[in-house]
Amino acid sequence: MKRLVFFLPLAIAAIIGGFAIWGLSGDRDPSRIPSVLISQPVPAFDLPPVAGIDTPGLSQADLKGAGEIVLVNAFASWCGPCRAEHPILTRMAEGQGIKVVGLNYKDKPADAAAWLDELGNPYVRIGSDETGRAGIEWGLSGVPETFIVGADGTILYREAGPVVGDGLKRLQRALDAAKSAE
């Protein structure tokens, strides 16, 4: 019994240390959060437009069977990484002809309108998700997140975090694969 009492703290420390080493290992990327929505149809949602912006709202019907690949970008004016990826999304929409729609997540409409007025609006549709309910349906872990939705309304890919650097490379590879599969 005395040995058990002596070795128990040592065993607990070893277990905690093992999890710490596993968590910090180079083989594990904490930004790669799996999504259960991949290969599933877009979730049911219907969002009004952002007040003060002349862009229509966004709903499931706009994505389901759209007949083309669509990027769905969850963003907010209060999100620093969203600002960093915004010029890239704009170039993708204007330069590559990719249809980009926005899900404005837990944002004040006036702030979102000012942000888009300042940075430009690459979105053909923007849904205002002030309560965050649609974000729950999409399985958002935060903003920004970008989804590739296939022509048939199936979610093909999810990039958690800004589409800059490695995130942009991953998104572009997934987008190229989606286009070639059409």
UniProtKB/TrEMBL annotation:
Thioredoxin domain: residues covered: 36-180
GO cellular component: outer membrane-bounded periplasmic space
Keywords, sorted A to Z: Cytochrome c-type biogenesis, Disulfide bond, Redox-active center
Domain of life: Bacteria
UniProt subcellular location: Cell envelope
Similarity-based family: Belongs to the thioredoxin family. DsbE subfamily.
Protein name as it appears in the record: Thioredoxin domain-containing protein
